[in-house]
Amino acid sequence: MADVTILGAGVAGLWAARACLAQGMIPRLVDRAGAPGPHGCSWWAGGMLAPDCEGAVAEEPVIRHGRDAAAAWAEVTQVTHRGSLVLAPARDRADLTAFARRTSGHETLDRANLKSLEPDLAGTHDAALFFAAEAHLDPRQALADLTASLAAQGVEIEQTELDPADIPGPLLDCRGFTAHKALPSLRPVRGEMVVLRSNEITLTRPIRLLHTRHPLYVVPRAGGLFMLGATQIESGHKAPITARAALELMSTAYALDPRFAEAEIVEMGADLRPAFPDNVPRVVQRGQTLHLNGLFRHGYLMAPALAKQAAAFLATGEKGDLFDED
Amino acid sequence: MRDFYGTTLDTPMMLGTARYPSPKVMEEAFRESRASVATVSLRREGGGGEAFREMVRALGIHVLPNTAGCHTAREAITTAQMAREYFETDWIKLEVIGNDDTLQPDPFGLVEAAKALCDDGFKVFPYTTEDSVLAARLVDAGCRVLMPWGAPIGSGQGLNNPFGLKALRAAFPDIPLVVDAGLGLPSHAAQAMEMGYDAILLNTAVAEAQDPAAMARAFGLAAEAGALAARSGPMPVRDMAQPSTPVIGKAWL
Hints:
By secondary structure, chain A is of the alpha/beta class. Chain A has helices at residues 11-22, 51-54, 60-66, 69-74, 93-102, 111-117, 139-152, 243-256, 299-316; strands at residues 4-7, 27-31, 48-49, 84-87, 107-110, 127-131, 135-136, 157-159, 171-173, 187-197, 207-209, 216-221, 225-229, 264-275, 282-286, 289-293.
């Protein structure tokens, strides 16, 4: 007999199950679509564990908790600890200065330093910010590894559609935007991404290109894959990527390295991120239900901390700082 | 104060809703700026932007939808019609972009769209240049507000052509004029208001400031200071120094 039901097996639900096990509770993990896949927005993530870079616009809790994410993930999947790089086109150099002023944990690189870190970029860029403490992972591999580690501890994902109202006992609702009826301030923020394959380009860490109209990040993955992301549009329109978004992501990638022009388009995707008005993920208590939601663009960065606080509350009654007051 | 199609605004500040770090920060910026109008774009969010539109409505001030991102009169007209439906307002900030790099208005497409929209009952706020001939064509088309740029959108350069903006003010004493786009600092806002403009409209300088709410407050104060100065009859500029107290008869050692 399970001690707690978890609805939703995306990045939040999987971490919730892991955190419950760590507290000695037996979770029942349920998802209407089964194992993680293209039906959930965790599937489309970039996998950057970059709390310092996110700090340029994110609120303080995201930076603080995000700094623990890489260590948490390293317990279940391969995490690449090679930092991240931030670049700006030559005519927008002032943006690099502004970004440096708003973030911490970086050093400024000249062309020679950049060449030693990422030789492929030194031909086109002569200045960068290096965030040495940051890391990245392959989100789909991470979801699979986390699912497998739960299975090894006896927790399988049960594919059923359950009404939260019919579930007795404590419930961790990790359904993302699907739970919006219970969380009126939750809103969808559309994101679109492209995956390219190139055997010509070698990058070993995530690269962010600051651009006033079309900011871009590129996350390298195994097999010559590069994930280009991501748009951020205040829209709940769940439809394939638009031509404009694809055009902008790819032309900005081309500006980063012209060899992307010859890369193969492997995949394009779009989904909706659930977000609260301050874009900070949180735990919202509603009776016997805890909602772990609003992970916005910080799913991989914040799921471990959010899950840990929810599980700790179930075990001890203690509320962490990510609990919402309402 | 001149009215905007029959509506008197409490403050001369109009603020955009794009590019904030989060809706919460946007809401704080609006509160601090004391803006009386919120502009909002439709083009990219389209039918799916309901949650965000609800947040804009919840600001509780006048909503001025725009046609940002439109490159032809036809596209702008369709977007305006969508905006009227979504926001239940006949106000529209008309943008027809002629050059994607400078985001300059396309004067020909602008006049064409303005005419069609005014005929259709819209209250059109055209984003234009400081060209007074173009301004006259827009007024002929039925526009009763003009929104000349200070500088290219998002450039933060301030008032690139103060002479042109002053001439426009002089040429259209009865039309409400708003400096729209290019403002980077509160002093730019004050300068526009001191010239006798009726309002300013900006977005990037606030949304992309390190502390958007504080910058919003700074802009709001500057706009109101400039407006107050314009109403207070600024002194004429002179070449000669003029001591404020007479020198003759002053005790000296």
